[in-house]
Known about the structure:
The chain is mostly beta strands. The protein has one domain: Lipid/polyisoprenoid-binding, YceI-like (Lipocalin, Beta Barrel), CATH 2.40.128.110. The chain is built from 1 helix and 11 strands. An 8-stranded antiparallel barrel has the order 1-4-5-7-8-9-10-11. The longest helix has 7 residues. It is elongated and about 55 Å long. The protein starts with 12 loop residues before the first strand and ends with a strand. InterPro entries: Lipid/polyisoprenoid-bd_YceI (IPR007372), TTHA0802/YceI-like_sf (IPR036761).
Amino acid sequence: MNSTGTAGRVRTGTYTLDPAHSRLGFVARHAMVTKVRGGFNAFDGTGHLDADDPTRSTAQVTIEVASVDTRNEQRDAHLRTNDFLDATNHPLITFATTAVQRVDDVHYLVTGDLTIKGITRPITIEFEFNGSAVDTTGAERVGFSGTATINRRDFGVSFNAVLETGGVMVSEQIGLEFDISAVRVPD
């Protein structure tokens, strides 16, 4: 996390997610012919970034399942049911890091425990450090983008429908997409 190709150097400290400038999203193949993208509108998270030894960095994120948004209210309502995310019985999705591996100056592998519907599994997210800057309010800000792929069945999300043409309605593989802006908490 240095200044190579970025606006500045990250300072060691605690950072909080800025939901107004971050996106936690997903993409799934629908009816075997197209992709549907969605995200969550309510989430928070904190992390400790260690500028000298990024492997000692940590993060925790909590997502409100009921905030799922695919720009289609009928689909969103179905995603909130037990067929998919079961927002009533499992209102939160959580992630907590267990390891951070530095690939190069801007690429990191962040491994952690993802919990969906009460089932916890390890995942690894490929993150790219997009830079750091002091914004117009004087806040120190960092940006990361990342992706991972999970099998939704591993988390108890197994609903599907067989299509007349032989495929299924929803892919098992779900792409996760992260666009993160975090603000350093003053000392």
